């Protein structure tokens, strides 16, 4: 189905246009963080703590400084005091943010905590010198288990009693007692998810150059303008003296939305060294220090009528935010509670959220930071269905919201609109052939084989209108040659924003797509934009391009009408030309129009300004654009070894009209694979002393093509209340997949009486579940 164009006829929107980024990326000519070179470039490497919690008694850099090629060794005493302001635009200065010193000052709080920064002529010398920095520690007992951190006498940060980083209550849980007491069925379960890492293909990286009172940054970031703002505040340098350039970024997934402590150190150090300074994170550093996610649990209560009607839901949610979460960790936790009722018709609900410190790496955003709500709810729905003797699909069918029920506010006040949960749900089951699978499953069980099917249905808030994320700008220039450049904040982080901008601009102006290029990620030439995050980019780019292109369309049409001696209403734009309707021979190319606009301004129609360049800004009108989807997974479980083989994976998604189905399905696929990893194998684990035990890919397991089945797609298109009706799609795959996979495993093992409440479902975990349940069907 072809999506609507924004400002012009849809030629490209809704079609499977090949990505414009692919040529350089597939031929190895992209520019990533470590590809940046500057004259006199210096290299940074961090000395990191080997202890989860310890007092720093002294730091001796004498031997390191004596090594040829070492320029400097910085400690907290050298850098931390230079901070002017430290806050993120995404949160604002008034959020009760948590501590975040650039270098550890007096105390280390997790294994990997940066203690000193070594600067040398090359990376090899810097790494060698780091081993010569002598740090005298006094090891102390750490707080490793966030779930018991409130009762610990040890405090991660002295200013936070009970190790509570933040707490947000909804209505008291007691308000649901009357409903639950009168319900035919009440489910109470605790769902637990393990710590995970975002694992972008490229780690973090930053090159900083200070010259003539101006700062230029090359950053592996999802938000170059945020990096610029943050650097300006941190250093007290006027914003117009800071330029951030983001070229190609090998994945972000939320981990690269804002600068973290290491980037702060590079920013603070560059003015103290005699040349540009580069830091490139290696894989071990990334797994050690770039951030954790998903480590959390929720105490769930659900009440049902005798026929399975959902009466009430509540969740008491607690997450592990490590020692230095980035940014403020409480916001996503609130979203878990607000989203927990999901795409279902529920009359009553409440929640509580608590963020807890621990002596582990700090929590960072990761693709759908609130995704635990879907995992907890969808696992509990399957558990409840089995206990009530109702098929899990049928229980959902009795409660799921339909498109014709919109708008709808869930019981904790989240307003839904322009979405279709029931429609995607039924489409996904139809693609599978749900009833036929149940027959296949029964036949397999008679043969001693255990097949299962899992369902996960969710709603996804995209393109938020919250102040920081609520607007996007674009500049479009028709060059004197007639070719077109569109300038946007954007950036290339693997989510095809360049292709998106080019397609939408070509449609909006009636240009050939090969005549359109885009410049993104350079704060010196692009309009301000918050960057990519919160599944916002597609709809916000559409709005910004539409606003800007409408100005240029009007000018192109006016100049063409004057040249062709026609009425403006009779002129149309197509194929990078303007022509008179019904008379294709009466036409003028964009190049000819540009020649008039730039070089013959006196020949322009009255009131038409010279040039063909426009800038405009789109402000989102809806608080959220609601996407939704259903994931269905089938699997076979070997009950002896605990091995899980995924058989089919189906996603029915409603992200509105699709700008490019290839891009939509690519985003879904990437998220699904991450979710499969989280369900079955990934685990950012620590031992009881706070030592990380998964800092290489030998220990931190990732899914490969052998574990992932071909992903099948269904699409339902419910336009949103915004230009083009487009919605975001960046996070949904990762939100829905863990529960679908876990429910499939639980369904396969249901003859054994197994109840799945904790991830990951590794082979040994599955064997343990079967054994605990009695070991026989």
Description:
The protein is an alpha+beta fold and 777 residues long. The chain folds into three domains: 33-140 and 204-249 and 256-289, Alpha-Beta Complex (Aldehyde Oxidoreductase, domain 3), CATH 3.90.1170; 370-465 and 623-773, Aldehyde Oxidoreductase, domain 4, CATH 3.30.365; 471-518 and 531-619, 2-Layer Sandwich (Aldehyde Oxidoreductase, domain 4), CATH 3.30.365.10. The chain contains 19 helices and 28 strands. The strands form seven sheets. Strands 3-5-1-12-9-10-11 form a seven-stranded mixed β-sheet, sandwiched between helices. Helix 10 (372-388) runs parallel beside helix 18 and helix 17 crosses helix 18. The protein is globular. The two termini are 47 Å apart.
Q: Largest sheet at a glance?
A: 7 strands, mixed
Amino-to-carboxy terminus distance: 47 Å
Strand content: 15-25%
* Secondary structure tally: strands: 28
Domain tally: 3
Name given to the CATH architecture of the largest domain: 2-Layer Sandwich
CATH fold category name of the largest domain: Aldehyde Oxidoreductase, domain 4
Under CATH at level 1, the class of the largest domain stands as Alpha Beta
Radius of gyration, in angstroms, nearest whole number: 28 Å
- Uncertain runs: none
Mean pLDDT: 97
Number of distinct helices = 19
Biggest sheet: strand arrangement: 3-5-1-12-9-10-11
Shape: globular
CATH superfamily of the largest domain: Aldehyde oxidase/xanthine dehydrogenase, molybdopterin binding domain
